[in-house]
Structure formats: structure tokens, C-alpha cells
Amino acid sequence: MLLLQIADIHFRHPECNTPDMDPDRVYRTRLLSDVKERVRALGPVGAILVGGDIAFRGIEAEYTAALAWLKELAEVSRCPIERVFVVPGNHDVDRSVITKSFAVQNVQAAISSAPAERREKLLRAQFMNAETGRTLLEPLAAYNEFAKIFSCQVFPPERLYWKQSLELEDGVTLRIHGLTSTILSGIHGLDDTRESLYLSPLQTILDPVDDVVNLVMSHHPPDWFKDHDEIEDAVQGRAAIHMFGHKHRQRIARDRRYVRLAAGAVNPDRYEPGWQPGYNLVNVKVEGYGAERKLLIDSHLLAWQTNPEMFRPMADGTAGEIFSHSVAFPSRHLGNPVSLSPVRLEAAQRTEAIELPNDSVEASMSDEHTRNLVFRFWKLTASQRREVSLKLGLIERSELKLPEPERYGRALLRAGERGLLDALAYEVAEKENNHGR
After folding, report:
1. Which pLDDT score is estimated for 148?
2. 288, exposed or middle or buried, with CB in 10 Å at 0-12, 13-18, 19+?
3. What are the CA-CA distances from residue 388 to residues 54, 250, 288, 297, 361 (Å)?
4. Average per-residue pLDDT in the chain?
5. Would you tell me how many other CB atoms lie within 10 Å of the CB of residue 76?
6. To bridge 148 with a disulfide, which of 85, 153, 159, 379 should be the other Cys (CB 3.0-4.6 Å)?
7. Residue 389's Cα: distance from chain center in Å?
8. Which 3-state string (H, E, C) describes 133-173?
9. Per-residue pLDDT tens for 205-218?
10. Can you name the residues that pair with 254 across neighbouring β-strands?
11. What local confidence, expressed as pLDDT, does residue 337 receive?
12. What is the structure's pLDDT at 291?
């Protein structure tokens, strides 16, 4: 599966909504052209992973422009728009909300100033409380409105981060964990400093399940967190692929247990030292069987050059323009597929896929058809979403005052839990058909 990794797009209003006055537009346009050419050789993109800083000030107008561009990116990469996954960055935090709200300042300060041994417990208590949990997320309100159509919004008390699954070869699942690195971002309305943020073990469970490859994406890399040592231990030991942004530096690090990719930035500040837009294409493939099975990861790091203007692959020393790496990924099922007939092998693979451990309904809703249904659901009018959700019993009337990303995000999860996805699909289709009459 080919993954497209980008970060730090920094859609800035009003420039991004007045294209003829947006000096950064050209780099995004060049990136679209470059992706279009590369997928002709590499094949279609299976998922687009957006590592935060989508906006610049975290306001609605910036996400309107971002969504339009991401739709273009999905089209040229031949990737369904439903396979776009996003996490928030510090520029997706609306700091004006923090400076105007003592409630937000107080809950952030309480967690930040807590002794290390009490911080995790306090974050859990604050996030699981209906009032303080929503207060923590108020600066991400515009981001959540944008992220909801991709099922990447966060809400209390159960969704501090998200995870989604994609199928690789031979019954292997790629599980993407989208971490929320911005809970303490913009504290007191100020810039973040190294080790000023907090992630917590609540987000790094990354359960090492058989036949599941964990991929972690977060805007901030581990060294920006107060608990960076614990994060490094968890991520390195439990995830085979790490994707970070924020630093605007395009890098790759390879270890026998994992590969770590820094996305660079689609639109870094043109006046910052070392300015260089970039993005990554990462091909992930399973090879071998049983004890010999490996995850093969070929990374194409595309960096901007000025004269002539274009994206060019970064070189891997004498190894060419592809950074190749393999991570051992043995299976507990150590049989030899050669001894099976093609029919029996296919049946065995189907059985393994069916019995794949799944600790989350959310992960099971990552199926392409279900994600498409979610996308269509959000395209209904507000009154249609309300009518469908109430009809199927997916929300209570007492929940109608909740923010939409939380209200209907929870309703969609309930549809999966209660086996009502087919019924939901029928109701959505009915609304779509009636709208077209």
C-alpha cells in the first residue's frame, strides 16, 4: 500500500481564500502536479496521512480552503477522499479561545503543573469529566468540525485519540493511531516550547496484536513532550512505522524494529532558516510467511528545489533515491503456504482475516464502504442528520445540545456497535434520493 505523508500545510486566512494574493499557493500546486506524475509510476495512493498544522490560526475559513485542496490531492493521487486521515497540530489550536477563557487556561494549567506521578491520573479525570473534557477541546472546535468527515475528530470521555485500520496483504492489518498532541498546546496563549506538552500513556497503548502493524502519526515528535522518555519506549517497542511533523525538517531514521519519518512541511514559512517544502510517499508491503515474514518499507522523500522549480527525491547515499528498509514481522502461524493448495490457502487467509483480533468498534468501522457511508452522512443537512440519528435511536434527545462532531461521532460509533450500519446506509440513501427530486 502506498501512503502519502504530508504535514504543516498552514492554510492562512485571508490569503488562502484569495488565491491570486497567496504566495504559498504555487508550492501546493506544484505538489499536486508532482504527486500526479509519481502515482503513474508507483500506482494509486492507498491513504493520505496529514500530520497536523492544516490551518494557521485554527479558524473555520482556513479549513474550508484546506478541504478543497485535500479533495484535489485525493483526486490526483487516485485515493478515495474517505481515506484521508488527519491529526491536529499547534496551528490547529485557536489560541484566541484560550486567551479569552479562564476555564480553558485553568484546566490546561492544572494538568501542566501537576507532579509527574499525578499528571496521567489528572488528565484522565479532567478528560472524562463532561464539563472539563469539552473545555480542554474548545480551542480545537474548528479543527473538529473539519476532521469529523474523516472520522478523526476527538471528544470526551472516550476519544482522546483515534485509530483506523487498513488491510495489507495476507490478512495483515495496518492500524493507524492518530494521536492528539495538542491538549496543552498554546497554554496561556503562548508558543509551545520543547517539553511543554503532554501526551500520556493513555494515548500510547498501541496494543501489539498479532497480524496488526501499528502506525503512529502525531504532529509533535516525542522530544516535545514532558513524558518524552516514556513515549519513546512505547512507540519504539509497539509501532513499526512512526510519522511526525512540526519541525519542518524532512528526515528518515531506520531501526531493526521500526522506521521513523519526519514529513517536512508542505508550506514552511518562506523566511525561516532552511526553508524547503517537502512530502513523503511510503510504500508498505508484507513479504514472506511465518517466522520469515517481514514488513518492507520503501520511502520516497520528495524535497523542493528552486531552480528549476520542482520536487526531487532525496538520495539515500549510494543506494539511490529510495530509502528501503525491512522490519521483522513474524507470525504465530508458522506453517508453510507451499503445502496448501491455492483453494485451501485462500480459505485459510479468509479465516485469519475474519478472526483478526479487534479491540475497537472504531477500528472495525475503517472498512472502505463504512468510511464512505460516514462521509455521505456528514454531507446530509443538519436536520437530516438529526432525523436519521433519532429514528435509529443512535442519539438521545438530551444529546442534541452536544457539539456536532461529538454528537454524531458518537452516533456513528453506536451504529457500528449495534449492527445498524446497513440501516444507516438505507436512511442516508433515502435522504440523498429525496434531496435529488
Report:
1. 97
2. middle
3. 31, 45, 46, 43, 21
4. 90
5. 17
6. 153
7. 26
8. HHHHHHHHHHHHHHHHHHCCCCECCCECCEEEEEECCCCCE
9. 998 888 999 999 99
10. 259
11. 42
12. 81
pLDDT one-digit tens code per residue, 222-237: 999 999 999 999 999 9
Distance of CA 189 to the CA centre of its chain: 25
CA angle 126/130/134 to nearest 5° reads 75
CATH number of 2-328: 3.60.21.10
Longest CA span, the chain = 68
Domain ranges of the chain: 2-328, 367-435
Mean pLDDT, rounded, for 124-128 = 96
Q: Return the closest-CA partner of residue 263 out of 103, 117, 54, 121.
A: 54
Residue 349 grid coordinates: 487467509
Grid cell, residue 160, equals 482522546
Residue 110 · residue 72 · CB < 8 Å? no
Question: What is the pLDDT confidence band of residue 357, given thresholds at 50, 70 and 90?
Answer: very low
Give the pLDDT mean for 354-361.
45
Residue type (1 letter), 42: L
Lookup: cell for 412: 456513528
pTM above 0.85, yes or no: yes
User: Rounded to an integer, what distance in angstroms lies between the CA atom of residue 412 and that of residue 368?
Assistant: 15
Measure CA of the first residue to CA of the last residue in the chain; give whole Å. 40
Kindly report, residue by residue over 358-411, the tens digit of the pLDDT: 455 766 677 888 999 999 999 999 999 999 999 999 999 999 999 999 999 999
